[in-house]
Specification:
Elements lengths: L2 H16 L7 E6 L2 E6 L9 H13 L2 E2 L4 E2 L5 E3 L9 H18 L4 E3 L2 H22 L3 E10 L5 E12 L3 E3 L1 H10 L2 H20 L5 E4 L11 H12 L6 E6 L7 H13 L3 E7 L5 H4 L7 E4 L1 H4 L6 H16 L3 E4 L5 H9 L4 E2 L8 E2 H13 L4 H6 L1
Parallel strand pairs: 5-6, 8-10, 10-11, 11-12, 12-13, 13-14, 14-15
Antiparallel strand pairs: 1-2, 3-4, 7-8, 7-15, 7-16, 8-9
Helix pairs in contact: 3-4, 5-6, 6-7
The structure holds ligand C2E and calcium ion (CA) (2 copies).
The site of one calcium ion (CA) has 5 residues, from strand 12.
Length: about 400
């Protein structure tokens, strides 16, 4: 919203802080991207730091109303104590950063003290971050592919590419172990490019004829990076048709900047790429996004699918998502299908396709190819027999 808006907001915050009685002398300052509060708590026994922290949080509880609009600000606080966490300013600030990092990991509007375990967490993640850089250079990433099966025909209709990291010491790591760290750096764009290249190599090597779904992260759609350009270059290099590539974006990504993201997605759609809205139903206003953008596919989040047998609410939400998606002309895929009962429920609810351990776990490329050919060539196939 521009520097001017930021300045106005900072002035409002400063004003509120000045008018808050912390019961103790406190100095607030800006230090790069973060803010530092120095509290000279020589009355430590009388005023607990928790009380001061609560007061700082209370300053941000009410929205800030500027001439443009009202904004709610979320904050995180990391706490370091002198001399326990550092005898000089540099060390103390570093300890504060570690604690802040840990607080951010817990969620918005949280605070953390600096502890030995937090120190270890930060060091471990820093190490992992460095290893991630090397991982790209050393070709340690691999893609697994999970089949998606049409519920009416039993045929595999597409596959989703899911990244794994063959870590030299820790073994095979799942995205949950490293993607968040990659997102914090620019690495996510390089990893994203690697995924696109690897998918193209896969299609090209096996002359694969089904569409492959690629997960895209929000940072790959930022203003300065031209993802579409990279995709087009890579597809041309491997001589691959646009129809063979699908992009999965999570519903939550839409809320960052719905107009801009919708226009990037529409642009991809216009070039014959198909777009899938992932984790559907988990966001704040799932259905409202559909006013801005029609995805080709909607993927119902596994949290609903896994409860359809036990929760009448999740069953009702699942049925509703399927109905509305169909009304809007989207194809519905249910993810996380592990049990035959879930499959039957989804078929009765008119869901189009499923993905999940019940059909197959994500597989290395050569295993996926084997799985695919055994399910297309044989008469009584593994997948089809599940559907009888
Ligand atoms: P997602 O896109 O929602 O992918 C589905 C996740 O559910 C995958 O986890 C998959 O292994 C898992 N899954 C599939 N079937 C079942 C099932 O029947 N039961 C259960 N419990 N889980 C099932 P995975 O591979 O750990 O990936 C986690 C997330 O990481 C993905 O969630 C996606 O958001 C992200 N991700 C994966 N690969 C990439 C990538 O190449 N780029 C980006 N940006 N994100 C990726
Ligand atoms: Ca996905
Ligand atoms: Ca998902």
């Amino acid at each position: 919203m521009g520097h001017h808006y930021g300045d106005v907001l900072l002035q409002m915050i400063a004003h509120r802080l000045q008018n808050t009685d912390f019961g103790i002398s406190a100095t607030f300052a800006r230090l790069g991207d973060t803010f530092v509060t120095v509290i000279y708590n020589d009355k430590l026994k009388e005023i607990k730091s928790d009380v001061i922290i609560e007061k700082i949080f209370s300053v941000f509880k009410q929205p800030f109303i500027t001439e443009y609009q009202s904004v709610n600000l979320d904050i995180n606080i990391g706490i370091a104590e002198y001399p326990k966490d550092g005898g000089d300013a540099d060390t103390l600030i570093k300890s504060g950063y570690s604690a802040l990092y840990a607080a951010k990991r817990i969620g918005i509007n949280t605070y953390q003290y600096n502890t030995p375990s937090i120190k270890k967490l930060v060091i471990d993640e820093f190490k992992l971050q460095n290893q991630l850089y090397e991982a790209l250079a050393n070709d340690e990433f691999i893609l697994h592919y999970q089949p998606i099966v049409n519920l009416k025909t039993g045929n595999i209709t597409s596959v989703e590419a899911l990244i794994r990291w063959q870590h030299p010491e820790k073994g095979l790591l799942l995205p949950g172990d490293f993607l968040a760290i990659a997102e914090q750096t620019n690495l996510i764009n390089s990893i994203g490019e690697w995924v696109i290249q690897e998918v193209c190599r896969f299609i090209n090597k096996y002359q694969f004829i089904l569409p492959v779904s690629i997960n895209i992260s929000i940072n790959q759609l930022n203003e300065v990076y031209d993802l579409t350009d990279y995709i087009n270059k890579t597809l041309a290099q491997f001589n691959i048709k646009h129809e063979l590539i699908q992009f999965e974006i999570t519903e939550n990504m839409m809320m960052y900047n719905i107009e801009r993201i919708s226009s990037i997605l529409q642009n991809l759609k216009n070039q014959n790429f198909r777009i899938l809205l992932d984790d559907f139903g988990t966001g704040f206003s799932s259905f409202s996004y559909l006013k801005y953008f029609y995805p080709d596919f909607i993927k119902i989040d596994k949290s609903f699918v896994q409860n359809v047998m036990h929760s009448t609410k999740d069953a009702a939400i699942t049925r509703t998502i399927i109905r509305i998606s169909h009304d809007l002309g989207s194809i519905v895929i249910a993810e996380g299908v592990e049990k035959i009962e879930q499959l039957r429920f989804l078929r009765n609810a008119d869901c189009d396709a499923i993905q999940g351990y019940f059909i197959s776990r994500p597989l290395p490329a050569d295993h996926l190819i084997q799985f695919y050919s055994s399910n297309t060539k044989l008469k009584s196939t593994t997948v089809k027999s599940h559907l009888l």
